[in-house]
Amino acid sequence: MQKVNIVRERIAKGRPSFGPFVFSGSPTVVETFGVGPFHFVLFDTEHTPYASFETVAGLIRAADAVGLISFVRVWENNPILISKVIELGALGVVVPHVSTREDALRAVEASRFAPRGTRGHCPIVREFDFGLTLDSWDYGKLSGVPESIAWDDREVLVMGLVEEKRAVDNLDAILETELDGVFVGTNDLSFTLGIAEAAGQMFHPAVLRLRDEAVRRCKEHGKPAMCSISSFMENGISMEAAVRRWVPEGMLVYHVGVDLNFIRARCAQIAQQIKAFAD
């Protein structure tokens, strides 16, 4: 459904946006996030079992119902996947394994209509209100199409997931494309350094250097960086302190954690309080 992408608006103003990752695939969980101070939800189809488009469509509807922008991490840099989630109503797409300029161009071309890209156009999809945004249903002369395409170009964010060391090495070439920004995947980066003790350690010095380099280059290119907020909480600093430190550096889009971890953490708290009576 056509609406304003508040995350893009906040980026333009230099203001941070926050949202959780959703691994559960539950629309009910998504609706609960509407009561928090969040701006978006990020649906993961790369590492979760809910790869069906019907499930993703239901999650996007739940987010729309509570005023949250939907980002979807597709499971590969595939034009059908990228186009499909945008047609379902996602206003943000995170494309994995963008490690070269060619990867970035592939993602951009899949997400934009000609002349900017090669995405196929269909007026009867949820993104375009199932055709209701068009002024005419005469297929010989559809009207309202330029306006709807302009809206799409203006509102949809396409972020490349930088999760390999070579991606950081190639980041200038990646950011010179029409990609809107990059998601810095610090955990995956840690596994590509060839340093055994760095794997899974977001605060290893070598990982921090790559993180800082990626954010710096995004700022130089005038594009936002997206990342886990926990990746910036080294030395025990608070979320608030981390955001205040990094927003001026162009780190503007933060995922604040995973829904399943929120549930697990609360269960652990309850278990601690009742463990004396559990046997």
Text of the CATH class: Alpha Beta
Strand percentage lies at 15-25%
Sheet with most strands = 8 strands, parallel, barrel
How helical, in percent, are the residues? 40-55%
What tags apply to this protein structure?
12 helices; TIM Barrel; alpha/beta; 279 residues; eight-stranded parallel β-barrel; single chain
Describe this protein's structure:
The mean pLDDT is 92. The protein contains 12 helices and 8 strands. Strands 1-2-3-4-5-6-7-8 form an 8-stranded parallel barrel, surrounded by 6 helices. By secondary structure, the protein is α/β, with parallel strands linked by helices. Helix 4 crosses helix 5. It has a single domain (6-277), classed as TIM Barrel (Alpha-Beta Barrel), CATH 3.20.20.
